[in-house]
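Record 1 of the preview.
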Amino acid sequence: MNIMPEESLFHEVVGLLPQHSSEDGVLFPVVLCPNPKIGKEVQLTDAIKANKEWLDSLLYRSGAILFRGFPVFSASDFNDVVESSGYENFPYDIGGAGSRTNVVGRVYTANEAPPDQEIPFHHEMSHAPVYPSKLFFFCEVEPGSGGETCIALSHVIYERMKQKHPKFVEDMEEKGLIYTRIIGDESDPSSPVGRSWKLTFNTDDKTVAEERATKLGMKLEWVEGGVRVIIGPKPGSRYDETRKRKIWFNKVTGGMKDKLNQDLSKAVMFSDGKPVPADVANDSSKIFDEECIALQWRKGDVLLLDNLVVMHSRRPLTALPRRVLASFCK
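->
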């Protein structure tokens, strides 16, 4: 059970949405609402500041916390919530693949991919040597239908894949994986990874782009209309030192077809050039579907994720509008 601080501004709710239970009884995700015993409107910024140590412990044990029912109405309100956490800002300026727009302060739009497209499970910026440790999401406009954000525990995915495909996991860890995709000269709003190379590397100078890519562990090969980006080889799993367990840390199911990336069989390969078997990618997708929690957004929801523990995705949106914002922390 989660030991709530005395006179907490939070009230933990069970059964509000599907949840998984860990061995020590902590739920995934944890759902926190305003404490009705307080007798007045509870500001999420105040509640976070007053319970920071407890929330950090809870996030460490669960991996995900959903704050629901607090008066968070706008991007500016959300920025205040992020600031109240005390987490250092992780700027999304160089290396990110998704198309985003800075809204205010530390707040960006979530991936601006067309609503009918699915965004596969991933750890944010897992391809880079440095990636955010915490992610905040905020629902500013509640979707009419679809558009769920799905979350899954990476160590659970790792254990199930190791059981299902032990040889693949062994090869993946021994050889490492190479990711390849083409980034255009101009941004493509029809693609989930349609950010131009100029925005990706925050420059229109090819030499500067190459220098910045090298620092991120990327190799660039210039092609007509853009640049081929080669990342890796990178390990397909990581060892979580603090929790003493391995996690699924790759994009085996992350290939996304668009105008420049048509052959998804080459999107992820072993370091020796051999492709990832189709049955492995398919089984990975099935396991994600079985293990994930699909979050039906409500206006004002704030979701906090540990980016090392949890992978997230977005299901296609079947009814507009939907506006989810994001912020990244070190």
